[in-house]
Structures are given as C-alpha cells and as structure tokens.
Amino acid sequence: MSRLIVVSNRVAKSDGTSKGSEGGLAVGVMAAMEKDGGIWFGWSGKVDNKGEAPKRETRGNIEYITVNLKQSEYNQYYKGYANSVLWPLFHQRPELMQYSDADLSGYLQANRKFADELLNVIQPGDTIWIHDYHLIPLGKMLRDAGIRNAIGFFLHTPFPSLDLLRTVPGYQKILKALLHYDLVGFQTIADHMGFCMGVSQGLGGEILKNDRLRLGDRHCTARVYPISVETSALAGVAQAGENTQEYKRLYSSLNDRKLIIGVDRLDYSKGLVQRFQAYDRLLGHYEEFIRQVVYLQISPTSRGDVQAYGNLAKRIDREAGHIIGTYADFDWMPLRYLNRGFRRRTVLAMYRLANVGLVTPLKDGMNLVAKEYVAAQNPENPGVLVLSEMAGAADELDAAVIVNPYDVGAITGGLAKALNMPLDERIDRWRKMMDVLEQHDIHSWQSQFLEDLNFVTAPKLATAVN
Ligand code: F6P
C-alpha cells in the first residue's frame, strides 16, 4: 500500500498540548495530514546523548516517529547551521549569519542520521515529502542509499536571490542538493525565481519547459505552492474558543476598548521592533486612541539560546517598557506583551475578537497567522488585517492594509486606518481575502503538491518497475 511519509525537523506535538509556539510548518502540515493520515518523521524536540531508538506513537491516523538529537547535533545542526546560517540568510539578514565548517558538518551529520533512520521506515511505493531548510541534503542522501521512491521537498521559508545566496560559503551545494528532489515547492513566485536563477546563473544549469530544471543528468521540477489554512474550520474553532476562561477574561478586561493583536514567535524576522515603535507613534500622534485601544502581542520565546534571539528579546523588552512607562495609567495598560503561547482555539477566538490583526514581518515565507486571522473573523463584523508586503501572504491577501514593515510611519498610518475603518469597507476587504482562502486552503495545497509529485515521477517510476 502506498503511504505518505512526511519528514520535518519540527513535528507538531502528538498529544494535542501544543501551545502554538511551533511555527507555521507544524500548524500547516498537521492540518494537511489530519485528513488522510500518514507517517510523520522528525525531531522529538528532546536533546540527549544516549542514542535511543526512535519513538513510535500513533494518534488518530498519523504515526509519529521521532528521534532525539545529541547535544552536539543540537548545537551544530539546529542552533548552528540551520538557525545561524540558513535562517538569517533566507530571511535577508546575512549580517546575522555565523558560519563555521564544524556547524556545516554537524548539519550534514544530522541529515545523515535522519536518512539512516528513514531507511528502516521507507517501503517501495511510499511517497516521501521532506520539509524545510533543516533537511535540504536529505533527498540526495536517500537517493545515494538507493531509494527510488518519489521524493518531494517544500520550503516554508523564503528562498534568497542569487546575490544573497552567494554570501554563504559553498552556496552551490545548497542549489545542487535541491536538484535531487523530483519536485521542489516554494511559497511565492519570487522564491521560485530565486531558485531558478540560482540554478541557471549560479550553476550553469538549464531552465526547460513545464518548470523543469536540468544540471548535467539531474532533472527536477520546481513550482509555487502557497501554503494555506483550514479555511472552512477556523471560524467554528474560534467560536468554540469563546467558551474558554482565557477568552472570557480577555473579553471582560477590555472594557469595550479596541483590540490590536499580534502573534509571532520571538524572532528577528517578525519586525517586532518596528511594530512596537509604530504603536508608540500611534499613541504619541493620535490622542483619540489614548485609553481607547489595547495592543496584545503574544510572542513565545523561540531559539532563545541563539545569540541573535537573546539580543532581540532584550531589545523588545526595552521597547515594551518604554511604551508602558510613557502611556500606561493605573487603570489602562496600552500594551500587553506575553512570552508564552496559548491553546489554538483560544488564540483563534482572540483573533475573532481583535479589531486589528497586526502582521508585519520584515521577511516571511508565508505567515499563516495572517491567513488564520482572516479565516477566524465574524463575517458580519470582521476585523482588519494590517499586513507586511514582505510576507508571502501579501501576494494573495492584497485586500489587507498593506504596509512596508521597515517604514514605522507607514505601520502607524496602517494601524490608524484599520482602527477607523467603516464596516462596509471592512466587510468588502474581508470578503475578497476569504474568497482567496476558500479557493486555496490547506487541503488543496497538499493535494496539488502530491498530485504534481505523482505526475512528475510517474514516467520514472514506471521505468523502474519495468
Ligand atoms: O514557519 C515555519 C517555521 O519557520 C519552520 O521552518 C520552523 O520549524 C518553525 O517555523 C519554528 O521554528 P523552530 O522549529 O526552530 O521552533
């Protein structure tokens, strides 16, 4: 029987206790897998040096197979090359890269460990779908070990232009590794173009018809598949979340004030410094909002032991302290800044309550918070999405109030516009965005990718059988 094996570094918590700090990949893949099931292979989230066998656990129709990382693997692969080189590079922050040969070799070793474990799992006919920047070399390693199955790869983050990619030593290997997949999926046209230009200009490869690329005897197909959300379900989950104690406490604490909400991992790509500065400016320049508005920023700590994240946390603390010290009163707190996550239905209910969803990353692959905020709204009284033009989601959700996330004044203007927007304009903008999300939800994202993977590999697999 043909099975789907999804492989990613981060695996959604299998016990349903997720507090929403796992990022877009876990949320998106979970929603996609819940429907048809399959095997989900990845890191357990635990670090230990014992070298235990992978843990297997079935929940619903998903079998989770997870491995622990050794301390050295965690340091060199996760903290090191993945999150101190590839993450800043792919998010246009090369000045934050901390490259070392040792981290690169730890990254390759951890990929090899994933490959070795997967060899015990993969059966002929399985479809293998690998996700994200942590596991770029994994496809080639599986091929080298003799795996002939269909192997697809999806990148959840942006992909850089060739100029930027060139800033990392050995960048050609990243491009070459991706060419070993049958199908490579990107979030946006710009990411796809970055890859195609990298292959043609950086490696001297050819761009052929039907999104095919060739380098020597290697062929691969590369296309755009913007990830989405479970559109039809989210409003219902948000309504269910209105029964939670946390929601009720938030609601009553507002005292009819307007709510602005931001939900982001505490990451320098999310534009939180500029966002806080824009809110500071809003309160400084528009007296009408004093005591009338509350900004709730939910930012669970993420990768806190990577230096750039520690520095960011301190900087955000200062910005938050400044806003509270300047504007708060004994009976009004303009900013509520929380370094913790909440259960999913509670967050969705908070989205539904918020008059403004503030999503202003400096660079983001897609940003599913933006899409979830829209899908959670009450159709008769929807809130307004203020969205960065640097998020992949802006390509589709152009009926949002679009802002440049580096332009603090523009974010302030966007916030004021959103807070004052009349109901008919709010409905009109929301409807346009919902049309997009209804046409392209998480299930169509998954089926489109897997159908294409099946299609591009069919001739090759037929030859292998014959
Ligand atoms: O949006 C997807 C993503 O950025 C993943 O690439 C990443 O796994 C996740 O969010 C959160 O990061 P981490 O796994 O380091 O906690």
From TrEMBL:
CDD domains: GT20_TPS. It comes from the Bacteria. It holds the Pfam family Glyco_transf_20. Belongs to the glycosyltransferase 20 family. PANTHER family: BCDNA.GH08860 (PTHR10788:SF106), TREHALOSE-6-PHOSPHATE SYNTHASE (PTHR10788). This is Trehalose-6-phosphate synthase.
